[in-house]
Batch of 2 targets.
Target 1
Amino acid sequence: MSVIILGIESSCDDTSAAVIKDGLLLSNVVASQAVHESYGGVVPELASRAHQQNIVPVVHEALKRAGVSKEELSAVAFTRGPGLMGSLLVGVSFAKGFARSLNIPLIDVNHLNAHVLAHFIKEKNEVIKQPAFPFLCLLVSGGNSQIILVKAYNEMEILGQTIDDAAGEAIDKCSKVMGLGYPGGPIVDRLARQGNPKAFSFSKPHIPGLDYSFSGLKTSFLYSLRDWIKEDPDFIEHHRTDLAASLEATIVDILMDKLRKAAKQYHIKEVAIAGGVSANNGLRNAFREHAEKYGWEVYIPKFSYTTDNAAMIAITGYLKYLDKDFCSIELPAYSRVTLS
Ligand code: KG4
């Protein structure tokens, strides 16, 4: 009998539902919330309200596109955390009610594990190269910057992580200082393509081991800009593309330095990236260059699986379903958690 999993994601500002049948993705619907743009960041209360409005139509659309009726579902997988509590509660409550009404199992998914396992999403008629265990995954998003040793789909170890800001957070904050829109990542990425990455230099952290730090870079960016603006009030306007390219290059260098160190230390050449910042073209190029230079086998996700999506929740749910790894309806959401 087929295994059909409905995945539900609502950890931040994307309401998403996806259907996976026997390991193949049938649908992945994402409703992003434009309401936050004018605030320069996600407003938690607005996010949970928008999830409440979106969740039913998004799930309905995912089932419709998959050509699957709710009675055919084998289980419902949902993001338990980490994330914004008000946002999580909408998805968690919906998943619990839906699974209970259909009398099918519930599967809790750690959002961070799911980002890593996005590399196992397979679409119909698609031949994909999947990483072989053990592999390293650089998970970079608005909330995380981690180097993860992935020993099995359900066995992950954090080798290093940021001690302050995440890479995406640093890009977003620097972009805000430049008066660009939100989220800054895609804007900086676009501007950087036309700029000189060596035009300006910003301070890089000296943190031992495999941990990251981005708060110093953020301060260095802010103070440098202040000085330059004193000389030329239109400095940002005159140098926007070079600033974006130099900022991006510094962040990519910081990320890749530690990743190289980890690959060497653990003798691993299977290396993946995941999370929102993995959409960045500079980072993707650096991965390809490292593959060439160091003989790495690199795994770069499709753009649609870099930012938050339910396809990654559904594939994680599918793998857990095969192990009959279900959860109780009593299980609460959690806002802060590391890998499980
Ligand atoms: O994984 P994600 O969608 O959400 C979480 O943080 O969980 O990541 C969002 C982050 C934001 O900081 C956004 O600016 C960044 O990913 N981002 C990018 C790009 N696209 C999204 N950063 C750099 N280049 C991009 N193309």
Target 2
Amino acid sequence: MRSSSRIALPAALISVLACAPSDEAPRTADHHAGAPGIGDSDFPKAGNGGYDVSHYWLVLDYVPATKRLTGETTIDATATQGLSSFNLDLSGFEVSRVSVNGTPAKFERAGDELTVRPGTPLGPGSRFSVKVTYAGVPKPAKDTANLGTYGFIPTSDGAFVACEPDGAKTWFPGNDHPADKATFDFSITVPAGLTALANGEMVGKPATSNGKTTYRWREGHPMVTYLATATLGQFTLREGATAGGIKNLAAVDPKFRSSLDTVYNLSAEITDYWTTVFGPYPFSSTGGIVDNHSAGYALENQTKPLYGGFAPEEGIISHELAHQWFGNSLSLRRWRDLWLNEGFATYAEWLWSEHKGKSTAEAMFNTYKARPEDHAMWKYPPGRARPRDLFNESVYTRGAMTLHALRKAIGDATFFHLIKTWTRDHRYGHVTTEEFVDLAERLSGKQLDSLFDAWLFQAKRPA
Ligand code: TRP
Ligand code: ZN
């Protein structure tokens, strides 16, 4: 689902184009290859052009002892142009079969691009379904974006799955860029005794036969690919609801057994508080997973933030849960705007601290503002996240400072009204920095170009 930029062809024209009766793929002007990237110049091969995914159905079987993942992914999509072929992003694995609308299709692989050539070309606007059967030992991604390892990462008892920015392709084929969101169904089979956790809510009861258990999960709200997870292993669960009535699930690895109630309680309290600051919770459940993989970081996986190798405290929980609004409900169209995720989530940590009567956002702002002029943060403009250093501290901290500078310029009432309007207007959609600046100017009635320019785009400390 791409929230805008859909092509709107008259129905009559669509039917003319779609009905070219032919068995071979005619390479006419009407049908051509879908682009190998979605159009984000910082990540030229991420995502793909020519179609828009509406749903992923992932059927997976993982055996921790051999680290082998067997998958069958079915993707429902709409062609946004006539397609003689199209690409999916997939890294590693042996692909044994691809079919389009139930008919076997030719396919080729080159790097992380899987090119699918349906027997019959797809007309613009046509809906189609592609099924990919694959298996192998997943290889996590490394070195992109100056992160450690990310993607599908084997652990001693299962797998830790955290994929931002482009690691979804390490476990399922798809349109791996946040500009294309879709709903998800998961069916994950693991050795009996293990638990498989994915986004959204569990469907039915886990079913065990022949020493294996299958867990089904469904995320019925649009989700970007990097937020999908299939974290599995030994887990203790606590389920219930927040005081505000949102379903809540905490799951912890045995090593972090003592953090179960804290994760459960803090996730509930913080989710409810954020609804009063950011607006209605966008999804059907909240919670958190603590796994024993010592990533040292956390990822805001939709409905179930994942904490890697530590018992999280309220600061990081407030950050990951703020992402459910900023990043997950309102998603990036292009990676360079990452401060819209990380600056907001970091500012949320300051707001949480303020709410708890600890340090105020103003005090945090002043502390960081006091950093010397030659501090690296002032040289890195957060409004332009760089592909090889996406998660730079400036994107987080100077991004958060930008919001505080804005709050001071327009006042608390307008600022918090702006935040709620922002999350409401773009719920489940996509956003850019320009759209945020426009809304801030509209609601405040102020000219804010120089404020945003100084905070987001200049390679020096704002005055
Ligand atoms: N978005 C995460 C945060 O700030 C950081 C992050 C980026 C991450 N990529 C990741 C964490 C991959 C885990 C795995 O909360
Ligand atoms: Zn974050």
